[in-house]
Give the backbone structure.
Amino acid sequence: MLRTFIFFLFSGVLCAAQAPAPAALDLVKQGQKLNSEGKQDEALALYRQALEISPNLYEAHLNSGIALDLKGNYTEARQHLAKAIEVAPAESKQQALRAMAVSYAFEGNAEEAAKFEQQVFDARMFTRDFIGAAEIANELARIYLECGDTANSYKWYQSGYETAQRKPDLTSADKNLWLFRWENAQARIAVRGGKTDEAQQHIVTAKAALDKANNPDQARFFPYLAGYLAFYGGDYKTAIADLQQADQHDPLILALIAESYEKSGDASQATDYYHKVLTSNAHNPTNAFARPLAKKKLAGAN
């Protein structure tokens, strides 16, 4: 009888200790909304409250890291992201690892980002999730490319293409979609290396593959590719025209438009587009490169 009483008493203490978790999660959800509105300081205040209730709450550490990256406090962000990786539930581990990779991308540190992307790639390969692994390979390849490392970018884009081909039931349309992505990547790598003629050859093959894929959702990526080649080829007027036909919610596209206007001598339009970049509060590779650039450009303009 005494043992039963002690058991229920102990169980009650445990329940009391765990009870605040829903309140902590609610604070995190409120913080996420504020962060999406660009109110990182207010979001962080709520995440701190959540961590006072549940010091090991995965969601609070992850979102603290995200908000701090967006503020430019990268060292502090990675302290929270490291904790998020440590306490992450199994199903969230890859999310935490990718967030850490993006944090390093914000500082243009591809080698450190690669250490975390590699873990996600390996995990997906282990489970034979070839498409998922290929997507991670391409994500890392893009980080390398925007950091100016074309050799490693080529290596990982090639890995992404070849990994996708390992999916046993890959349809003809999907094969052409992955060919489009591979030719798209080779075109961007070539133009970054000053090989404009080679880049043009790849864009022709990319367009043919895209047409065969017959995937309307992917069609929006072609103006981005054309604009990217025009920008790095020095044709800023064409770059602006093409990039304005691409995804206007992508901060890196907005940043390329801003730079194109800047290089064309239109400082006012450039400033407008740099401000548009900062309306994005996404924590992904494109914003990791666009946001710090926009902040730097706008700071220099003041």
Notes: The chain has a mean pLDDT of 93.
